[in-house]
Amino acid sequence: MSKRRFEGSGLRIYTVLYLLFLYAPIILLPLFAFNSGTIIAFPLEGFTMKWFDLMIGNATLRQALFNSLTIAVSASILATCLGIFAARASTRFEFPGKAGIMGFIMLPMVLPEIIVAMSLLVVLLGMGVQLSILTVIVGHTLMCMPYAIAVLSTAFGTLDKSLEEAAYDLGETKWSAFRLVTLPLVMPGIISSLLISFTISLDEFIIAFFLAGNQPTLPTYIFSQLRFPKAIPMIMALGTVLVALSIILLALGEYFRRRGNARIGAKPTGGFL
């Protein structure tokens, strides 16, 4: 009994140390964001909001934020729309090469992002396409699609097929049954896919670094400012805002995912959080 208790204590200690290692840097962000000193070190000098004021008044930062929001909204909508088609096809139909096609679509999830970014850069430049926000949207859509499909496949896969069949028996066409029956039932999964794709796109750096050209996104702007020590506190303030936004979006995505599973009677899973 004592040996089992010792093993249980060891596991708890390991868990606490692992969580501290994982989240301590994130916890330090708001500490230094509200610190009046320009040097990132302890002891803290005092409380201030001036770094957030500087962040709001920075025109280049605002433009980078606008670019990132434009890219994230566009990529999340495109990835979710394409994910609906792929998830619907993979959960409702059988066709030759289904496993291989779906595996190919999900490949960006496991490939190193720098390989994907370099490949897209070579292809786009070879086609004579000028690098801009549009090229970043293409790259982010490619990266977000596997995550959107993973969420939407669960929503479509756990949906009772008899509901659609009942709609057909009542005289609905395939399109009207999908619009009136299927779509409302999987809507929480669609919202979850949008939020998760938005978060992934907003935080993505490597593809934006390769494909943005001379139009900076928020991650590339942060990277460029790390060379200037006086800009670090403002970046800490910006990082605090981004972490809070990411947590809120992921929490909302998980809420809608679980709500969708409960609505269609699916068993709860571990999810993203």
TrEMBL record:
Q: What is its main location?
A: membrane
Gene Ontology cellular-component terms listed: plasma membrane
Q: Does the keyword Cell membrane apply?
A: yes
Q: Which residues cross the membrane?
A: 20-44, 64-87, 99-125, 131-159, 180-211, 231-253
Q: Locate the ABC transmembrane type-1 domain: which residues?
A: 65-253
**Keyword entries, A-Z:** Cell membrane, Membrane, Transmembrane, Transmembrane helix, Transport
Q: What is this protein called?
A: ABC transporter permease
Tell me what organism the protein belongs to.
Paracoccus amoyensis
